[in-house]
Design goal:
Blueprint (H helix, E strand, L loop, with lengths): L5 E3 L9 H7 L8 E3 L9 H4 L4 H12 L5 H11 L12 E4 L2 E5 L10 H4 L2 H11 L5 E7 L4 H9 L5 E8 L5 H8 L6 E7 L2 H12 L2 H9 L2 E4 L6 H21 L8 E6 L4 H12 L3 E8 L4 H8 L1 E3 L20 H8 L4 H14 L1 E3 L2 H5 L4 E5 L2 H15 L5 H17 L5 E5 L7 H7 L8 H12 L5 H4 L10 E4 L3 H9 L2
Parallel strand pairs: 4-14, 5-6, 5-8, 6-7, 7-15, 9-10, 9-14, 10-13
Antiparallel strand pairs: 1-2, 3-4, 11-12
Helix pairs in contact: 1-6, 3-4, 3-11, 4-6, 11-12, 17-18, 17-19, 19-20
């Protein structure tokens, strides 16, 4: 099998192997790693339809993580996708309002981030062995709510690693915060920052590129890596569930092999929808990739105008994992639609960094023809939750509701009746206050009482991830300003 190498989006520096890219997380020039070419699925979709999730995962991931041996990769997959999920299917499909909801929240932290973050620690420790890396790997991550808990759940007590998570103190749901602050593990630390997700993400990137700090860490036996979707080891496993979802539709007779499907993704940092785009590059039959935004509609405006402008008010919404104005993974798409032009991509990123805005060329706009964009207001998000419950007795979370609303608008305006997969990214129990309000129920109760009420309403058991919070102890209580984040890293590492 041909080895796929990875290069930076911002320079023509020498490419590295997949395992090296996973270990590094971010390229030395600050760019993101992208494959130098895209292989094509070497099993037919009908062959993949006969496989379970683990089987599909191997067939997809072997193409892009080509320097992992079959034994190494299958071991990582087996360790990741097993008893930590509450269903054998790993990713069930649920039909509602004529679309198919790809339920990505059956892992240990009840959010789609588990799909990649259950396997990333195994990929990373395997990559460390392959590359003779004997330093302790320090995972540094900013989270808008879900990545932090999912990453810590994956890396907690993994030998040779430490993980530090920064989150916006007043910008996540109560359940999301409780999940993070009660995280066990001698190698974990959580810090709230006074600011928003973009503040946390920008500072984490700055810390990553601090050469003096990295040199000091190297002397003390540490090396940085990332669990954010800027890490290609996060992105590749996310491609799997789109391929798996398509093959389940094939198995059910909903589509015939080769029929296109539209994929609808509630989007903040752009990693989840980029994974669907990468799936299409591997040969998955995709019609439209529908990018669903909340009131922070920077991506909708970009797809509409070709101008990306983060200079706007930051809005706190009921879908906090999408409250993002700097969508990091869009950089990878810019690189691809520029014709793999690293200099052009670097210039756009410099404009974003210095001016907060950039505009792509008309030629680059042509590369966006597979994408459509839409957004949902807070009222429209709540209405989608209520409407789908009333019609289907199916309860969805606010992020999924954003996607449901945007898909309804897209279908009404385009008349496109192509079969649709909607990425259902979190359990409604993670955002129970917003969900219960949308359903017209009292939402003033304490979180865990509210979970019991939602369970009755939805006819679904309270997930174990929420149940364990009833007796969990708060283990993390640090809050800092953005300019104090680097000092907190130093304190964590005892530098």
């Amino acid at each position: 099998m041909k080895e796929i190498m990875y290069k930076s989006t911002r320079s023509d520096s020498a490419p590295v192997t997949a395992s090296r890219a996973i270990l590094m997380g971010l390229a030395e020039d600050g760019g993101l790693f992208v494959p130098t070419e895209f292989p094509v699925l070497d099993k037919s979709l009908s062959e993949l339809a006969k496989m379970d999730y683990q089987g599909v995962a191997y067939e997809v991931m072997k193409l892009l993580l080509s320097d992992f041996t079959e034994k190494e990769l299958k071991s990582c997959i087996r360790n990741a996708y097993g008893t930590s999920f509450d269903t054998e299917e790993i990713v069930p499909l649920r039909r509602a309002e004529g679309a198919w909801y790809l339920e990505l929240f059956h892992g240990p932290t009840i959010a789609f981030k588990d799909m990649a973050l259950q396997i990333l620690p195994h990929l990373m420790t395997t990559a460390a062995r392959k590359n003779g890396e004997n330093k302790e790997i320090v995972i540094l991550t900013a989270t808008s709510g879900d990545t932090g808990k999912a990453a810590m759940a994956g890396f907690a007590n993994v030998p040779g690693t430490r993980i530090m998570v920064f989150y916006p103190k007043n910008g996540v749901s109560s359940i999301q915060e409780k999940q993070m602050l009660t995280q066990k593990g001698v190698n974990t630390r959580v810090v709230g920052i006074r600011g928003n997700f973009d503040d946390a993400q920008t500072e984490v990137k700055r810390i990553f590129s601090d050469e003096a700090l990295r040199a000091e860490m190297a002397e003390k036996g540490f090396v940085f890596s990332s669990a954010n979707s800027i890490n290609i080891g996060r992105l590749v496993p996310q491609i799997v569930y789109y391929v798996y979802g398509y093959t389940r539709l094939l198995e059910k007779g909903v589509v015939r092999e080769g029929d296109p499907v539209n994929i609808v993704v509630p989007t903040g940092n752009f990693g989840n929808i980029l994974a669907a785009y990468y799936g299409a590059r591997l040969g998955l039959p995709v019609g439209k990739l529908i990018c669903a935004s909340n009131s922070n509609k920077v991506l909708f405006d970009f797809f509409t105008t070709g101008t990306y402008d983060r200079n706007r008010d930051f809005i706190l919404t009921s879908s906090p994992s999408m409250d993002i104005l700097v969508s990091s993974n869009l950089e990878r798409l810019l690189y691809h639609i520029s014709g793999d032009d690293a200099a052009a991509t670097a210039a756009l990123m410099e404009d974003l960094n210095t001016k907060g805005v950039y505009t792509i060329t008309d030629q680059m706009k042509e590369g966006l023809d597979k994408f459509a964009g839409g957004y949902a207001t807070e009222a429209q998000t709540a209405e989608a939750i209520r409407r789908i419950y009333d019609a289907e007795q199916y309860v969805i979370d606010p992020h999924t509701a954003v996607a449901a609303h945007v898909y309804g608008d897209y279908r009404a305006q385009s008349g496109d009746g192509t079969t649709a997969l909607i990425a259902s990214t979190a359990s409604p129990f993670k955002f129970e206050n917003s969900v219960m309000q949308a359903l017209g129920e009292p939402a003033y109760l304490p979180d865990l009482e509210l979970a019991d009420r939602l369970s009755e309403k939805a006819g679904v058991a309270v997930p174990e991830a929420v149940n364990i919070l009833r007796t969990a102890l708060i283990r993390h209580n640090i809050v800092c300003n953005r300019n104090e984040m680097k000092q907190e890293v130093r304190r964590f590492l005892e530098l």
